[in-house]
Amino acid sequence: MNLPALRGHNDALVLDLLRAAGPAGLGRTELAARTGLTPQAVSKITARLGADGLVAEAGRAASTGGKPRTLLRLVPDARHAVGVHLDRDELLAVRVDLAGRVVAESGGPLDFGAGPEAAVEAVVRAVARVGDPSGPPLLGVGVAAPGPLDHRAGVMGRVTGFPSWKDFPLRGVLEGRLGLPVLLDKDTNAGAAAAAGAWLRATWPDADADADADADVHAGAGAYAGRGVGVGPDAEGAEGAQVYAGGGARTCVYLHIGTGLGAGLWLGGGVYRGARSAAGEFGHQVLLLDGPRCRCGARGCVEALCLEAVARGDVPEAARIVGEAAANLVALLDVDRVLLGGRVVAAAPDVFVAGVGAVLAARALDPARPVVALAGAGVAEGAAEMALTPVFGRG
Questions:
Q1: pTM across the whole model
Q2: pLDDT tens by residue, 138-171
Q3: For the chain, what percentages of helix, strand and coil (3-state, to nearest 5) are there?
Q4: Which residues, in sequence order, are CB contacts of 313 under 8 Å at separation 6+?
Q5: Using an 8 Å Cβ cutoff, are 160 and 112 in contact?
Q6: N or C: at which end does the chain have fewer Cβ atoms within 10 angstroms?
């Protein structure tokens, strides 16, 4: 067994729980109970994390007769990360702390069609603008870009309408320029992570009322991808494996409507990408045979129909079209929530929530149909969450 890796995993378990607990913090006894580690192991881990500046005391719990327990909390400003959303016509970069709060942002126009080299320069400049040389260390940079792409290899695919991007090693090139770890994923996957995390964090105050609360809290605490199993026996004294996230976690789809249409899938406590990182091509399902030509080459795609309606100013029709496509997705995946985001939605949020919701209600095969809501966070924030994943044991 790789002891340094195991220690990193156990450290991540503790940090993840402290992140979910917020400023109130948790005691060492609670950390031991929730991770399956021994109290001695938790004491070693928290001492190590404290020495690294990641954990601090949060006060003392109310006494129940004995000595009041010392509570520990995550130190959000101990480290930062940057998230970049590369859209087809604009770029947004954010710097976030360990709690996921945005502490700086910068945006501007981008010509994605100008090619990879120009986009790389734009990313480098944006990271410099949101960076703070005198601030906390940067853990890395998450980049969210239009798909398809190879998440594992960090290589772009054949982005519809932009052939010059095919096979461009964006992650490797950016790592060389920035001198930082870079994670690359589709914009819709980053959006799903951010949206699901915001939704799940909103359930934390009610955790005790939900039998699946622990799974939900830990799956959503860092937002980017759920963890299936806790720790097993190790040199620091784990008492046994503990399943505490993933199975039973809530599910949702994030629908991004901007310069294109796509879906991010949050299934089983984490982002689902598919075997080839190609899951979520929501915009290219055909709704109308022999309909208008889509830029992907097919006819009658939901993307072509929706954006055509937006272009002529018929936003309710655009929402209805998205609703029909969303109903297909819901029927296939049986999800709890449909979360909406992107600039087109932001321009008419009430119209889209109502329009998509009405179609789902009309086509529902089950009375317990999914809730339709706005995404509580954006793609750039989700991209930043990617760069935080090593700290909280995800990836």
A1: 0.82
A2: 999 999 999 889 999 999 998 878 999 999 999 9
A3: 40, 20, 35
A4: none
A5: no
A6: N
